[in-house]
What does this fold into?
Amino acid sequence: MSVEIEVSARVKEALADGKGVVALESTIISHGMPYPKNLETALALEEEVLKKGAVPATIGILQGKPIVGLSEEGIHHLAQHAKGVQKTSRRDIPLVCGLGKNGATTVSSTMFFAQKAGIKVFATGGIGGVHRGASKSFDISADLTELGKTNVAVVCSGVKSILDIGLTLEYLETQGVPVLGFKTEKMPAFYTRESSFFCDAKIESIEDLSDIVSAKWKLGIEGGLVVANPVPAEYSYPAGEIEDIIKTAILELERFNITGKDITPFLLEKIQSVSGGKSLESNIELVKDNARVAADLANSLAKKLREKP
Ligand code: PSU
Ligand code: MN
It folds into this structure.
């Protein structure tokens, strides 16, 4: 059995030419959105990155093979046959690859494969975090420890308020992960532009972002960074409405005995079905915006590396 990471020709070439490359995850495709919106979104994200002159690399596992730069056919498969696709975070990689299964990569495993391929920037919707009630359940996403050790900058719209935003920020501090608000001082809460919590700093330009990212890695400080980019104002969703939906959904977790890795997909699905698609639209638009910011950041970092390697 050979388990090797396959990097697509387009991504290999872009990296060799010193172009900006943006990693994209696949759990958002298989377990974060319903078909066919998930497929349309996955393809639209690649388009957004290409329009900026950077190269997208959607990451996933097909028949046990980790692929960095999935083909359109591969993306179709992960979108359409989600039931046969395992949600794969870092600890699931050996099982999915060892047994030849199909896997959708979460933030943690996407970061892992991105770093192996030499990709420095990754765009997604929201990262996992510390769940509400974690002091009892210990439910803390592997995304946070991955951010502590893997050198990839993750552009996202903060964390969903299904999580405890304050505790998530505390945990990121413990892991040594900078949380940079892009044109915002407040930590975004996914569907809404602001939470009551503060980012480490408000960063006004892509140039400043890429200087901070470069400084971290030039100094040999291992680990990632969070670039928190709020949902575009016209697509933000009223905070109060979301809070009511989340509270009901959390109560249902107990009623249906949902635990472990199934919690996040269950809550995402509930919010989408109760809000009647309105939240899905804001979800799609915020990820597209994150893909654009990530492409700008990847291009800026690539340019700096070309100038002074
Ligand atoms: N948050 C979202 N949408 C998502 C996820 C999180 O708003 O699709 C996915 C991401 O792939 C993230 C994962 O890495 O859920 C976290 O899962 P868990 O909470 O089980 O660690
Ligand atoms: Mn969990």
Remarks:
- The longest strand covers residues 55-62.
- The pocket of manganese (II) ion (ligand 2) is lined by residues 139, 141, 261, 263 (CB under 6 Å).
- The radius of gyration is 18 Å.
